[in-house]
């Protein structure tokens, strides 16, 4: 095909797709996307009647019994189109057991990594259940089913009665406060433009710690200090209910933070958490950046181990993060450190079956560092497995993260400044004074909290992460 003919054909294709791409989020009709699914009914004489199962019923924990699996009776005629970039659709399946099963259908992403992260969460839940301190406190992760169908299409179980943390926080704001919600981001842009040519990398090198921390505090103070707290007040029917919901959120969020840290899960902006509106539990979603890739591969590397911003710490007032939050983190990390073999053996699947995205990331890293790509495909996931092992052996989180930073950014002009920001100041930061390996679980958790709440790191973080909220 001649280049000109190809260009014309592509234009016709894109012109035909444009109405669907420009369609706003909200309810849509299933028949617009799949007439076959729309017309599928178990009562028909279709070849597939009574043979298509509701996805997600093969757990791998026991021998499957397909005769007892729920079959698909049909589909709801409406789908919910989400507002995110690829516009995933929420599909409702009518089960033969007269129940509805909701799934989010996503295209353009490899969901195998998310599926394996959920499998690792299941292993972690087993460890927490066997640990007396964690079991007594009911510490566990909320998990959901992920069904990859191809390397670029898959389905995710819809977690019922939840709301994205960002929406949950904003729901408690007045109209005036909601209008001002974007003010800190505007302040960040104005500061970068005025002093650092709107360039984060220049800011990493030139902005002094005192200035960064001062500007960060100004952005934090531009928002109500109790947005998250008010969200739980609004959800509660009484003061007692507020205390119960808040406590459950703190326990689940602390558990989630430690488990995410061990697996190196990043990109924890407000839309990548959900809040259960019945129990107050925190649920993590979207694990596209795991095993340190948010530090290693993003152009503006993440330098915090998990999200612990002022809104999170303000929720537990009058207590400090040294109370229930730290205690819970300590119990969870101790349980995982006491059972490293099981967790690492499960993670070994990443070595045996490197994902396509991992191969792409490995090549990207080698290009950035001007290295030849090793012939052994497993070198990259092995590197990630070693990092997870260090966390379970009690290494200082700043030292562990420095390895990820070094492997992705050591040839950049700003690397030495980033390293200094990451490692902290021995006079002010506990993580900078304890050495490469922590003496106890308690000390490791103290380093993690110091690391996650450092205003010199949060004040330099990409604005889309909203570190002030």
Walk me through the structure:
With 469 residues, this protein is α+β, with helices and mostly antiparallel strands. It folds into two domains: 20-159, Phosphatidylinositol 3-kinase Catalytic Subunit, Chain A, domain 4, CATH 3.30.1010; 164-465, Phosphatidylinositol 3-kinase Catalytic Subunit, Chain A, Domain 5, CATH 1.10.1070. Helices cover 49% and strands 10% of the residues. The strands form two sheets. Strands 1, 2, 3, 4, 5, 6 and 7 form a seven-stranded antiparallel sheet that branches. A three-stranded antiparallel sheet has the order 8-9-10. Helix 7 packs antiparallel against helix 9 (209-221) and helix 11 packs parallel to helix 14 (324-337). The chain is globular. Keywords: ATP-binding, DNA damage, DNA repair, Kinase, Nucleotide-binding, Nucleus, Phosphoprotein, Serine/threonine-protein kinase, Transferase. Residues 75-401 form the PI3K/PI4K catalytic domain. It is found in: Nucleus, Nucleolus.
């Amino acid at each position: 095909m001649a280049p000109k003919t190809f260009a014309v054909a592509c234009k016709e294709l894109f012109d035909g797709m444009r109405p669907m791409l420009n369609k706003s989020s909200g309810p849509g009709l299933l028949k617009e996307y799949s007439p076959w699914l729309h017309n599928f009914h178990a009562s028909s004489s279709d070849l597939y009647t009574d043979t298509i199962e509701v996805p997600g019923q093969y757990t791998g924990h026991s021998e499957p019994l397909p005769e007892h699996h729920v079959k698909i009776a049909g589909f709801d005629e409406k789908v919910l189109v989400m507002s995110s970039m690829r516009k995933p659709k929420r599909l409702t399946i009518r089960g033969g057991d007269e129940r509805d099963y909701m799934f989010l259908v996503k295209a353009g992403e490899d969901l195998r990594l998310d599926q394996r992260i959920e499998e690792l969460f299941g292993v972690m839940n087993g460890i927490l259940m066997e640990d007396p301190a964690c079991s007594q406190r009911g510490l566990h992760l909320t998990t959901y089913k992920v069904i990859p169908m191809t390397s670029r299409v898959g389905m995710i179980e819809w977690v019922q009665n939840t709301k994205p943390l960002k929406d949950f926080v904003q729901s408690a704001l007045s109209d005036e406060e909601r209008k001002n919600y974007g003010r800190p981001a505007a302040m960040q842009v104005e500061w970068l433009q005025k002093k650092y040519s709107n360039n984060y990398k220049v800011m990493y090198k030139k902005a002094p710690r005192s200035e960064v921390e001062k500007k960060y505090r100004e952005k934090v103070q531009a928002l109500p200090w109790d947005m998250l707290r008010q969200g739980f007040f609004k959800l509660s029917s009484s003061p007692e209910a507020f205390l119960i919901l808040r406590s459950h959120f703190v326990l689940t969020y602390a558990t989630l933070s430690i488990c995410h840290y061990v697996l190196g899960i990043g990109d924890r902006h407000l839309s990548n958490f959900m809040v259960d509106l019945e129990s107050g539990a925190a649920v993590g979603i979207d694990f596209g950046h795991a095993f340190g890739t948010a530090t290693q591969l993003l152009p503006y590397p993440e330098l915090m181990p998990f999200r612990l911003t002022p809104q999170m710490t303000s929720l537990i007032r009058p207590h400090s993060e040294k109370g229930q939050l730290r205690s819970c983190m300590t119990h969870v990390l101790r349980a995982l450190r006491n059972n490293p073999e099981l967790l690492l053996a499960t993670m070994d699947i990443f070595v045996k079956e490197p994902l396509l995205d991992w191969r792409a990331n490995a090549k990207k890293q080698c290009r950035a560092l001007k290295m030849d790509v090793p012939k052994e495909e497993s070198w990259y996931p092995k590197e990630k497995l070693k990092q997870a092992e260090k966390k379970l052996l009690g290494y200082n989180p700043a030292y562990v993260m420095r390895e990820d930073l070094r492997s992705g950014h050591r040839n950049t002009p700003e690397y030495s400044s980033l390293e200094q920001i990451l490692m902290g100041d021995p006079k002010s930061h506990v993580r900078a004074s304890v050495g490469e390996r922590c003496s106890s679980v308690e000390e490791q958790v103290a380093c993690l909290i110091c690391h996650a709440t450092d205003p010199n790191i949060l004040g330099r973080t990409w604005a889309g992460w909203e570190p002030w909220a």
